[in-house]
UniProtKB/TrEMBL annotation:
One of its GO terms (molecular function) is DNA binding. The lineage of its organism: Bacteria, Pseudomonadati, Pseudomonadota, Betaproteobacteria, Burkholderiales. It comes from Simplicispira hankyongi. This is DNA-binding response regulator. One of its GO terms (biological process) is regulation of DNA-templated transcription. Pfam families: GerE, Response_reg. The modification 4-aspartylphosphate is found at residue 54. Residues 3-119 form the Response regulatory domain. Keywords: DNA-binding, Phosphoprotein, Transcription, Transcription regulation. It comes from the Bacteria.
Length: 223
C-alpha cells in the first residue's frame, strides 16, 4: 500500500483531491495535513512514501517544508501540487528538493501517474513545463525579471500584490516592519520600479497575486 501525506491548507481542496485520486488509485492510504508543522508532526510518528505538497501554506511555506522533509526524511518523495504553471516556480521547488511538479488543473489520470512515478523514485514534470524549463535554462527562452528576486523577496512581492500592508506582512512572516520595508526597497531596486503601484502592476503581469509561497528557510534568521 502506498502511504501518501497530502499537505494543503484548504479542506475543500484536500477532499477534492481525495475524490479524484481514490477511484483511480490502488488502495492508497491518504493522510491529511493543513500546515507544514502538522505535516512534520505526522512524519515524526508514522512512515510515508510520498508527500503531496502545496506551495501555499500558512506559517511554514511549501518550499521550506520541502527542504525540511528532504533533510529530515530523505526517503520520502515529494510531489508539488500548485496553482502555478510558470517555470520559475518549478525551478525553485526542484532546487528545494521536490521530485515532481504538477498543477492543480492536471487531469486526475495524470495526477495518479505523477504520484506513481515519483513514489517509485522517478521525476515527473509535464511535457510542456519541462520544455519551457529546458529552454529557459539553456538561454533560449526569456528569463522573467522575477528570477532576480530571492525567495523572501518574491514572497513579500506576492503579499504586496495581494493587498497586504507592511504590518500584516511583518506579522505573517515574523519580521519587523523595518525589515519588510528593506526587502521591499530591494525588490524595487532589482526590478527598477519606483512605487508600490508599479510593484502591483508588475506582480499582476507575472500572475503573482494568486498564491503565497510563504517564508523561505534561506532568510529564516532575519529580523
Amino acid at each position: 500500500m502506498l502511504r501518501l501525506l497530502l499537505v494543503d491548507d484548504h479542506t475543500v481542496v484536500r477532499e477534492g483531491l481525495k475524490r479524484l485520486i481514490c477511484p483511480l488509485a490502488d488502495k492508497w492510504s491518504i493522510t491529511e495535513a493543513g500546515t507544514g508543522y502538522q505535516a512534520l508532526e505526522l512524519l515524526r510518528h508514522q512512515p510515508f512514501d510520498l508527500a503531496i505538497v502545496d506551495l501555499s501554506l500558512p506559517g511554514m511555506s511549501g518550499l521550506d517544508l520541502i527542504r525540511r522533509i528532504k533533510g529530515e526524511y530523505p526517503s520520502v518523495a515529494v510531489l508539488v501540487l500548485t496553482m502555478h504553471s510558470e517555470e520559475q516556480y518549478a525551478i525553485r521547488a526542484l532546487q528545494a528538493g521536490a521530485n515532481g511538479y504538477v498543477t492543480k488543473d492536471t487531469a486526475a489520470t495524470d495526477l495518479v501517474a505523477a504520484v506513481r512515478k515519483v513514489a517509485s523514485g522517478g521525476v515527473f514534470l509535464s511535457a510542456q513545463l519541462a520544455e519551457r524549463m529546458v529552454l529557459q535554462l539553456n538561454g533560449q527562452r526569456h528569463v522573467p525579471d522575477i528570477q532576480v528576486l530571492s525567495n523572501r523577496e518574491l514572497d513579500i512581492l506576492q503579499r504586496i500584490v495581494n493587498g497586504q500592508r507592511p504590518v500584516e506582512i511583518a506579522n505573517a512572516l515574523n519580521l519587523s516592519i523595518k525589515t519588510v520595508s528593506t526587502h521591499k526597497r530591494h525588490v524595487q531596486e532589482k526590478l527598477r520600479l519606483d512605487s508600490t503601484a508599479a510593484l502591483v502592476r508588475f506582480g499582476l503581469e507575472h500572475r503573482l497575486g494568486r498564491e503565497i509561497l510563504g517564508p523561505p528557510s534561506e532568510d529564516a534568521g532575519e529580523a
